[in-house]
Amino acid sequence: MMNFSMSNTIIYLNGFMASGKSTIGPILANTLGWEFYDLDRVIEEEMGKKIVDIFHDEGEKFFREKETETLRRLSRMHDVVISLGGGTSVHNNNLEILKKTGKIVYLKASPEALYKRLRFKRDRPMFNAEQEQDNKERFKAKISHLLDQRSPFYEKADLVINTDDYPLGLTVDKIAKILLKKINEKI
Ligand code: S3P
Q1: Among 37, 75, 100, 123, fewest CB within 10 Å belongs to which?
Q2: Which strands, in side-by-side order, build the sheet including 80-83?
Q3: May I ask the CATH class of domain 10-185?
């Protein structure tokens, strides 16, 4: 295992939907020898249903309350990597919890890259209508608009990694290693 100067904390992976949080999270945690939690997966396990169904059945307000309550509980742990949902840091003063209890890494991606990764996905309740209509321009505009609204929150991170900078063939394993090196240097 690598020599890691930081301990007794949490690394929060933040960023827009499909920015790579859930993919990079377990690899980073494994490299650190830390536990990994995915906030959305914890909520799904506790509720016994998928996020898209929670949005559909209970509504977004309910989901956001459940998200904050789950985050509060997870934020009491140490030496864990937690992948957040794309909307976590922008709701209910959750950013304050994140800042107080850990280090935030923002996996930044351009609207164009996000569009390419999101266009075939059908599990993001924030976008279902646009995808169903297969309206490319409308879908792209919604991504850009939401990203503009959320960027001020995302940019409050301790470390920003521009994932567009890495060539497409680069594996997530390599990205996790680059991330680890940067964390060691900067945080
Ligand atoms: C959301 C992002 C999703 C999930 C929910 C809401 C958002 O997580 O929490 O669908 O508001 O951006 P991912 O970022 O993992 O897709």
Answers
A1: 100
A2: 35-38, 80-83, 10-14, 103-108, 159-162
A3: alpha beta
